[in-house]
Amino acid sequence: MLRTASVAAALLLVLAGCSSDPDDETLTVFAAASLKGTFTELADQFENDHPGVTVELSFAGSSDLVAQIQNGAPADVLAAADTTTMDQAGDLVVDPVDFATNVLQIATPPDDPAGVTSLQDLARPGTQVVVCAPAVPCGSATVALEKAAGVDLRPVSEEQSVTDVLNKVISGEADAGLVYVTDVRSAGDAVRGVELPESSQVVNTYPIATVADSPQAGLAQKFVDLVTDPTGQAVLADAGFGAPPS
Length: 246
Prior knowledge:
This protein is α/β, with parallel strands linked by helices and 246 residues long. The protein has 2 domains: 24-101 and 205-238, Periplasmic binding protein-like II (D-Maltodextrin-Binding Protein, domain 2, 3-Layer(aba) Sandwich), CATH 3.40.190.10; 104-201, 3-Layer(aba) Sandwich (D-Maltodextrin-Binding Protein, domain 2), CATH 3.40.190.10. The protein has 9 helices and 10 strands. The strands form 2 sheets. The protein has a 5-stranded mixed beta sheet, with helices on both faces. A 5-stranded mixed beta sheet has the order 7-6-8-5-9. Helix 3 runs parallel beside helix 4 (83-89) and helix 8 crosses helix 9 (230-238). The relative contact order is 0.20. Mean pLDDT is 91; it is low at 1-20.
């Protein structure tokens, strides 16, 4: 009886090992935090179009993602929220291509307790404003926007990603935050958006590229192709992203 049980257990182990398809592949995509909604949708579509492929998504501030790749983190695709940050990746990426644009917008709680209607309102004493840190694309865009509008903000917090800024507004920890227009749209009724006429002077261009030492170079390029083809562009447009520069 003991021998029979041992044989059965061994058989189960063999069957369990055979249940993994040797052709299964994993594609790791590093993407700016503001791309979470669109890239999650595109990753699902990519998996449907490529049976046996799993897309693992990692979202963070673009500068953090580049630093991770520089420190050896395994990634196959990098999508950043501005060209300056992608340039910092240097030879670690291959042939970046622009795929979208985005602009800043003010987000406030739905009841807007501070009565924010303009960028100038954010500079009023006592207004609790949260922005991105200057090192990340949404932060550098904020600095450029301040200069263009002649406004000097005194934020109570500088965050490492636009998602962190949005979450502080949603949680009521801030009267307002500067985020992308796409973040305001994705948040729905959780925030109120205030358009900025000055935002047209500060437009972030988003590039995407395959990572140079990716073992999945061919598959990575196919994901880049999906993002840049009409299907991917339609998903991005629905989320509020602008078209890439022509």
